[in-house]
Amino acid sequence: xxxxxxxxxxxxxxxxxxxxxxxxxxxxxxxxxxxxxxxxxxxxxxxxxxxxxxxxxxxxxxxxxxxxxxxxxxxxxxxxxxxxxxxxxxxxxxxxxxxxxxxxxxxxxxxxxxxxxxxxxxxxxxxxxxxxxxxxxxxxxxxxxxxxxxxxxxxxxxxx
Length: 160
Known about the structure:
The protein is mainly beta. The chain has a single domain (42-159), classed as Immunoglobulin-like, CATH 2.60.40.1090. Helices cover 12% and strands 34% of the residues. The protein has one helix and ten strands; from the N terminus they run αββββββββββ. The strands form three sheets. A five-stranded antiparallel beta sheet has the order 1-3-8-6-5, with no helix packed on it. Strands 7-4-10 form a three-stranded antiparallel beta sheet, with no helix packed on it. A hairpin with a 4-residue loop joins β5 (92-95) and β6 (100-106). The chain is rod-shaped and about 120 Å long. The relative contact order is 0.25.
């Protein structure tokens, strides 16, 4: 009978603990922020510009065009500038190493708005390729005494 009473007391104690629940641990908490900075990105590529052949002597105006392709994040404002070129001296010049041919680059097909370091074009990115045409002109009335290949290097820069 003594064992039965001890067993009942033990079962009663266990039942009491189960109905009251286990002892609760104390807790503490803290907040933290989650964030990200979203930045714009841009890429640029430019196609070569090739003028039609000219002959030695006095030149007439010779026009050409090429495209600059820019891909900037959607909504990102950007500008495109063109350098003066490798042979600049009072204006852009093509050279064969000893002789120069003057030329100019423009923003528009009428060739009325110069496109140079001081005249940037401003746009807003779409997240897709955007093509901007550069219009070139070999200026009329120049004397070109030497045959050969003439070239210059222009750097197109996108700022965003």
